[in-house]
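User: Batch of two.

Assistant: Item 1 of 2:
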Amino acid sequence: MAVIRTVDLHKIYDEDTVPVHALNGVSLAVEEGEFTAIVGPSGSGKTTLLNMIGGLDKPSRGSVFIDEQDITSYSDNQLIDFRLKHIGFVFQAYNLIPVLTAYENVEFIMLLQKRPKEERRVRAMELLRAVGLEEKTEKRPTELSGGQQQRVAVARALASKPRFVLADEPTANLDSKSTAGLLDLMQELNQNENATFIFSTHDQRVIDRARRVLTLEDGKIVSDETRQG
């Protein structure tokens, strides 16, 4: 049974001037535990679709169902609570909190969830080691390279062991070794915790690991490929 469904999803920007159809009738179903890549040219609607699924933006028309609950009808407070409990985000622009250290950024979601201090410490350090940043725990974002900030962002997204991880170009600033390590970490969470991963990506290294590849063009799904393994 699908844990995520979108039904006739439309997103139109600049409706009062020249309308831009970022999404144009996207309907899809995602089952629990999928490891899915959304691909397509720039401007095809990949990031917009992720934002809709994650409740960061609302469609112009259509619905998003999570566990058969229509999150497009949720209030802002309900969406905040939903995201906090269920979703880990990896943004292309990192979205780290500049006044917090790498450790504090990774810990932050768990702090909001009121997890015990020792649990937060163990999980944050485990993830920072996994992404190769155990020596950078006290560094703030401005003291880290772009690739290091990206790794902190991925560690933060995984910290609370979310049911769903939505990742927008998560490997854009990473070398091959770092990319392989991060994808290993994500696949481990996917397999051990049955977390559902949806990536927006141009990176062939990510696409090669995906078990399902959705292709968007002009705001529409033009291909849906499921692989074995």
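Item 2 of 2:
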Amino acid sequence: MAKDYFHGWYFKCMTSNKSIAMIPALHRCNGRETASLQIITDDATYNIPIHNLEFQESPLFVRIGSSIFCEKGIRLHIHTKQIHVEGVLRFKKLTSIRYDIMGPF
């Protein structure tokens, strides 16, 4: 049986006074595989279970339903009881983080 794991992609978008982070992710625990999308704003955090997540690493491309996360941008179409988010963000130049966001995990 395969090991437990977490595989996620961290997208943080900022202006001078606002930020939003989105983490589409795959999880395996005790042989069960699930997916989620975590959305973190300045005011709230949402953890949305996802039924269908597709990805490829190079070039980076993650699809959740009709939402897409890639190096060129993000297209969001998320509607749940918790949150309704729609929009398009286009990236010019990505900045890699200089540290491991997972810390000791």
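The mean pLDDT is 87.
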